[in-house]
Design a protein that fits this description.
With 350 residues, the protein is α+β, with helices and mostly antiparallel strands. It has helices at 3-11, 23-42, 67-73, 80-87, 110-127, 171-182, 195-210, 227-234, 236-251, 276-292, 313-316, 324-340; strands at residues 46-54, 60-65, 88-96, 103-109, 129-137, 143-155, 160-169, 217-224, 258-264, 267-273, 296-297, 300-301, 306-312, 346-348. The strands form 3 sheets. It has a 7-stranded antiparallel beta sheet, with helices on both faces. Helix 8 packs across helix 9. 28% of the residues are buried.
Length: 350
């Protein structure tokens, strides 16, 4: 037995390696522990673990977990599973809902988790992975958020599943997300930034342009064509569904330097760093994506198109005296031109 195997033996408190399980399962757990120990040495920001459960039983136990996990919950390794279960305030599950890779967040309270464990187990077994965030209350009454990413493996001979993965502390990111929602940063329906954020985006980038940090940027205003007819023919719930779906469709076209937000009603805004040609490509990519997407509500098709007006900062005039109001005025003027020329169009201030 080598030194690493000796270390595993000393700190091992699981069931599988010393239990009546198949050699295949024991080998997988042993190899997994060795690999996770090495990962823990290289990356201190992650908490590696191997969890296991019998498919017909509710109890989950840990075959291995990084020391930071038990330190966080102030418990022994043997009581880790129970301590973690009791510390959970809620669980946020993320899943892709369709071929467009739309991500849906589902918040499950601790009480709901008690009754939903079997269904959740089946879901992760079927998908082969776990993607969730736990809101946890620690022993010193602090709240932390732990992101869980793991793969699921099933050993039919043993009627046992194992989850091999990592926990990552994402407290800062989740607290910031909650703060943004509380102060109105995020539009409740579309989950996009509100118009108030556009003012800040323009303020920052006008400053960057005036200081020579960027050469140009583009603002676009986006309006849903004939949206009133959607509400009149299909109802306001259908209209809300269309707006929420449209937000996801448009967001899927963005790159790192692009922004999409809700301007108000059926109007949205777009922003990108670059000249008017880059903006036109972004706008056309977005327009075509919306035109081709099949919007449905209660199995009924709802054709949707958008008109887009845009302007680049250098088109306005003197950079030194550039204002957000000037940009919005010209983008709105371009949007009007797109509407007047037949809708489902892109128009610029050129």
């Amino acid at each position: 037995m080598n030194q690493q195997e000796n270390n595993i033996e000393k700190q091992y408190f699981g069931r599988i390696l010393h239990g009546r399980y198949s050699s295949a399962l024991k080998t997988r757990v042993s190899e997994g522990i060795k690999a996770l120990i090495e990962c823990e040495k290289l990356a201190h920001s992650i908490i590696p673990y191997i969890a296991a459960w019998h498919e017909d039983e509710r109890i989950i136990w840990y075959e291995y977990a990084g020391q930071e996990f038990s330190d966080l919950l102030d418990c022994s390794f043997k009581s880790l599973a129970e301590s973690f279960r009791k510390s959970i305030i809620d669980q946020r599950v993320y899943r892709y809902t369709n071929r467009e890779r739309k991500v849906e967040e589902r918040i499950i309270s601790r009480d709901e988790l008690r009754g939903a464990w079997k269904g959740l187990r089946e879901e992760v077994k079927e998908s082969g992975r776990v993607e969730a965030v736990y809101k946890v209350l620690t022993s010193d009454n602090n709240t932390v958020w732990l992101k869980d990413q793991a793969s699921i493996e099933t050993f039919e001979e043993d009627n046992t599943c194992i989850s091999i993965g990592f926990l990552t502390d994402v407290t800062k990111e989740m607290e910031l997300k909650d703060l943004f929602q509380r102060i109105g940063y995020i539009d409740e329906l579309t989950k996009l930034p509100r118009r108030s954020i556009l003012d800040r985006i323009l303020e920052i980038n006008i400053g960057n342009l005036q200081r020579g940090h960027i050469e140009d940027f583009v603002l676009m205003l986006i309006d849903v064509d004939h949206f009133k007819l959607v509400n009149d023919r299909h109802g306001h719930q259908a209209g809300d569904h269309v707006l929420a779906t449209l937000a996801d469709v448009m967001k899927s076209t963005t790159r790192k330097q692009d922004e999409i937000g809700r301007y108000g009603g059926e109007e949205f805004y777009g922003f990108t760093v670059g000249d008017i040609n880059i903006g036109l490509k972004f706008a056309e990519r977005l327009r075509k994506r919306v035109e081709k997407y099949r919007f449905t509500y209660k199995k009924e098709n709802i054709p949707i198109t958008v008109s887009i007006g845009l302007v680049s900062a250098t088109q306005v005039g003197k950079v030194e005296s550039l204002t957000a109001d000037q940009l919005i005025f010209l983008a709105d003027k371009s949007l009007y031109a797109a509407k007047q020329s037949g809708r489902n169009r892109v128009a610029s201030a050129v």
